[in-house]
Every structure is written in structure tokens, then in C-alpha cells.
DNA sequence: CCGAATCCTACGCGATACTG
DNA sequence: CAGTATCGCGTAGGATTCGG
């Protein structure tokens, strides 16, 4: 036990404030990419190939153009997806996961693995949200 | 109570409806465990050992007792943490991660890994939320 | 110290309609 | 088709207060 530890109220006692945020923020970033009502489904939809706007929307019932538009923009900002504009008539637009976007796959797989075990353990009969 | 209406969802065309939700729901469950403003910090705080209510609260600035109480309950419901009541005077209460709760570590580590790379790639200079 | 109860705000998201 | 604009609701989360 160290004697220098008294005023670090922001983090677990053995971590400096800076250390703590360094641990925390990246995890939050990753979480932020995947959370929300539609992000995951949109990403998964795109893992199966290029898709057009309406095509994605049709595949995900309940998804409104407003939300789809918003989510696709965030995917672009984060370089997880690209927007292709083909100069046809009328113009054709397709969205595609970037190679970088595909690096999410192992992560999603991990979440799926843990989530599956968790379902077996807890959720199956008694849970409130995630419906 | 009745919440099983998700079976009518459509999915990427090559997946059956059932297949799709089987892929999706567990991931959402896992995400749900970790998302929210405080869950992660509380879990991390508890990875370093048993903690008392106020102790956790002091370690996480901005966290109100209401939220802490709520989050701890969810952790209990999901068997990720346990509440110990010691019959001292006044009563002493401690929270502790369960072994099961510690199975989140690799998952969080994965999120941290991906998130760190993502920070380097994108976020560092330009982002809107979570930072 | 460990919470519960109450009130309030901000924001994600849905519904609907409209534009190019 | 590929989006935008406007309105409104539900709920996560904040501030404050009270009780054991």
C-alpha cells in the first residue's frame, strides 16, 4: 500500500486519472459504434455485400429513411462504410463496408459469443428490454 | 410481459427470419450489458475488488446514488455482481463482481483493442460525442 | 452510510410529409 | 430512388430531497 494515494477520486485507486480515461474512452468509442437501435443491423446487412439505400431499408423493417440516413452518415464518418455514386439515370447509390469496417467482425463475434452464453444463463425467461 | 413479437422481422435475404434474430439478439444482449453512461465504469471499478456503495460513487465523479443503485441492481439481475450485507453497526454493504462477471473482461479487452485502433485512426482530432 | 421517491430535461427515435 | 424537414413521444439520466 502506497502512502501517496489519497486524492485520486476519479479512478480506481491504483490508476491515475489519465490512465483511467485511457482505459475507458476507447471502450466507449467501440461501444458507441455498435450501440443504438439500428447500427448493428445495418452493419450486418452490409457485411453481405453492397446495398442500395432502399434495399437496406427494406431488409430492416421499421427502419425509417431518416434513421438510415443518419446511421449511414455516421458509418461514413467513422470510415466503416463508403458511399458509391454511379452516374446512371437516375443516379444509383450503393453503400459498402470498407475493409476497415470488416474489422468489426471479430468484435461482433465476441459479443455474439458472450451474449449467447448470457442468454442461456439468464435472459431466456426473464428480461425487460432488448425486445 | 409478453414480448415475443420479434419473429416477424425481415432479414438479409439469404437468412431466414429465425436465423437472423439468432444472430442479432445475443449481440444486442451483450451490448446492452455494457452500454449506458455508467455501466462500464462501475464494472471496471469492481474489477479491482469489493467496493462499498459510497466508495464506488466517489470513484466515479458525476454518478448519482440513483443511477448507481439502478445499475447495481441490473448487475445483480444479470448475475454479474453480488451484494454482500454485513451485519455491522451501521450495516456494511459491499458489492463484488462474480466470477461470471469477470468473464466480461476478455470482451471488454476486445472492445478496448478495437477502440484504441479506432481512436488512432479517426477520433483523435474530430468527433462529436463520447469525448 | 445506503439507498428510495419525486420532479425535470435532453435526446434517440418514430410518424409523416416533402424535395430532387 | 435517395434522401430532408417537422413534429412529438418515451425514456435514460440529472438534481434534489427524504428515510432507515
Observed structural traits:
homodimer, 131 residues, mainly alpha, Arc Repressor Mutant, subunit A, 2 domains, 3-stranded antiparallel β-sheet, 53% helix, DNA-binding
SSE inventory with pairings:
2 copies of one chain form a homodimer.
Chain A: H1 17-34, H2 39-47, E1 51-52, H3 53-59, H4 65-77, E2 81-86, E3 92-97, H5 99-102, H6 104-121
Antiparallel strand pairs in A: 1-3, 2-3
Chain A binds a DNA duplex (20 and 20 nucleotides) through α4.
Describe this structure in words.
The structure is a homodimer of 131-residue chains. Chain A is mainly alpha-helical and 131 residues long. Chain A folds into two domains: 1-35; 37-130, Arc Repressor Mutant, subunit A (Orthogonal Bundle). In chain A, 53% of the residues lie in helices and 11% in strands. Chain A is built from six helices and three strands. Chain A has helices at 17-34, 39-47, 53-59, 65-77, 99-102, 104-121, and strands at residues 51-52, 81-86, 92-97. The first copy, chain A, has a three-stranded antiparallel β-sheet with strand order 1-3-2. The radius of gyration of chain A is 20 Å and the shape is globular. In chain A, 27% of the residues are buried. The structure holds a DNA duplex (20 and 20 nucleotides).
CATH superfamily of the largest domain in chain A: Winged helix-like DNA-binding domain superfamily/Winged helix DNA-binding domain
- CATH architecture annotation of the largest domain in chain A: Orthogonal Bundle
Tell me the series of helices and strands of chain A, N- to C-terminal.
Answer: HHEHHEEHH
The number of domains of chain A is 2
State the shape of chain A.
globular
Total count of helical runs of at least 4 residues of chain A: 6
Low-confidence stretches of chain A: 1-14
C-alpha Rg of chain A, in Å?
A: 20 Å
* Percent in helix of chain A: 40-55%
- Whole-number mean pLDDT of chain A: 85
Distance between the termini of chain A: 47 Å
Quaternary state reads homodimer
Strand order of the largest sheet of chain A: 1-3-2
Give a short account of the largest sheet of chain A. 3 strands, antiparallel
Count the beta strands of chain A: 3
- Based on secondary structure, the structural category of chain A is mainly alpha
